Amino acid sequence: MSNKKKKKLSPTQQQYQVFAQAREPKRPVLLNSARAFLVGGIISTIGQFFQWIFVTYFGFTDVTASNPTVAVLIIIAALLTGLGVYDHLAQWAGAGTIVPVTGFANTMAASAIEHRTEGFVLGVGGNMFKVAGPVITYGVFAAFVIAIIKLIITALGGI
């Protein structure tokens, strides 16, 4: 809390703030980080396994195998979300399930499941893309900015 906000609090409110902070449970940051690293690494390893399958058995190159690999991970995450498994994993692992593309798939599927009673168009479709819209928008914008930077670097002679 900033100092300006603390000055506006009454003495009783300030005492309560101190009281609440003293009793707030401490978060096991190291344990949470280890869990996130472990689960994020396992998800990435599963992705590498699927990419290896696409390259070895289906004749894809390393570059072209990326798209079906991401699609398989998205499908698996959506299925696990629908079955209620992914939410329990996310509770335990924290950010380890959010960082890979599976976190985005979980968010989309959970939003669709949550709003299914409102109908397919306005409930599932509308609310699902309230989540996806900003991600897509900022992703496209970031790609545009990076492309402009690359164009400038290339025009300057590849610094």
List the keywords:
159 residues, mainly alpha, 79% helix
Report on this structure.
Helix content is 79%, strand content 0%. It is mainly alpha-helical and 159 residues long. It has one domain. α3 (29-58) packs across α4, α4 runs parallel beside α6 (101-114) and α6 runs antiparallel to α7. It is extended.
Question: What is the fold's blueprint, element by element?
Answer:
Elements: H1 3-8, H2 11-23, H3 29-58, H4 66-82, H5 85-93, H6 101-114, H7 120-155
- How far is it from the N-terminal to the C-terminal residue, by CA? 44 Å
> Kindly state the mean pLDDT as a whole number?
87
Number of helices: 7
Provide the structure class. mainly alpha
Radius of gyration from the CA trace?
Answer: 22 Å
Query: Ranges with pLDDT <50 over ≥5 residues?
Result: none
User: Which sheet architecture does the biggest sheet show?
Assistant: none
E-strand count: 0
Helix content: over 70%
N-to-C order of helices and strands: HHHHHHH
Shape: extended
Strand composition percent: under 5%
The number of distinct structural domains comes to 1
Quick overview of this protein structure:
This protein has 159 residues and is an all-alpha fold. Helix content is 79%, strand content 0%.
